[in-house]
Amino acid sequence: MGKRIAIVGVGALGGYVGGHLARAGHDVTLIDFWPENIETIRSKGLRLDGLSEEERFTVTDVAALHVSDVQSLARQAPIEVAIVAVKSYDTEWATTMIRQYLAPNGFVVSLQNCLNEERIAGIVGWGRTVGAIASMISVDMSEAGYVMRTVPKMGDRYTVFRVGEVHGRISTRVQDLVEMFRLVDSAKATTNLWGERWSKLVLNGMANGVSAATGLSVAAGYHNDPVRRFAIRLGGEAVRVGQALGYELEKIGKFEPEQWALAGEEIASPGSGGAEALAAIEADQTKGSPPNDRDDVRRPSMAQDVLKGRRTEIEFINGYIAEKAAEIGMEAPTHVRITDLVKRVEKGELQPSPALLEG
Predict the structure, then answer these.
(1) What would the CATH number be for the domain defined by 196-357?
(2) CA dihedral sign of residues 30, 176, 174, 105
(3) pLDDT digits (tens, 9 = 90+) for 73-97
């Protein structure tokens, strides 16, 4: 693209994407609010790791700014692409901070969980807002300046990055972004940003809060009957809410949205007609031996936050689903329950345990 790129939020995903783009020769500036992270990147570089040798490298020649240094951008060429990769609860201030340094044709890309495009558009306008979904990618920043990808690159097997305009048309800038993200892993342009967003929200809603509340990895949760069935109910409820909101949902994991909805309804009300869907999903989730559930094995971001004593995004994932359901007169009781449990775990009132989801 030959454009000036800012990565606002150099956590696991922002660092992973920013590191790959910088390595490929893009003009990247990394911006973060963790002083040790920025100082480590400045002194030792940004170290990326993965499951293959090609994924292990260190980027040393990349600009890195603490938020207190961002004002120095006023003396530089303006930012043309600002990729916001902060937690959802930091979206507004991060967007406001970078807005004043955007080029006249510059725009903001939400590379986040949840649906934050509306929050971003409220600050920079709809015409300067683009969405990018990262799907089936697991990355962890276990220490300052170090990002580890814990699952293989997908390549042709699965499209990891989906980039779209809020209006659904394929624009030149979206096509350019797709080529940029392909430097990281597989990518495509989508005409269904909102459907893609909600489908990813369904997936996150089944995994993140459950792992945070139970202390189990996603894989270990599959092999625990109450946990697995609670998660499937979360998925089914979220699908029904998304359908009622008018979203055109995409395939969620290996299964169609309707299969998740029927399976969840079968658990809530046995004999409701979803037995076949439930059996197929459970057979897929429980195949193979239960994993050795180490503390560091493939935990979603929310579970990592709990382990590190940080605030989670529960209110922007399960809480958001419950909120949207209430707005249209629907109920999403499992999302209300998991939101309350994770908030209590955050506060130290409860300890993560599979027992929290029993009964």
Answers:
(1) 1.10.1040.10
(2) positive
(3) 999 999 999 999 999 999 999 999 9
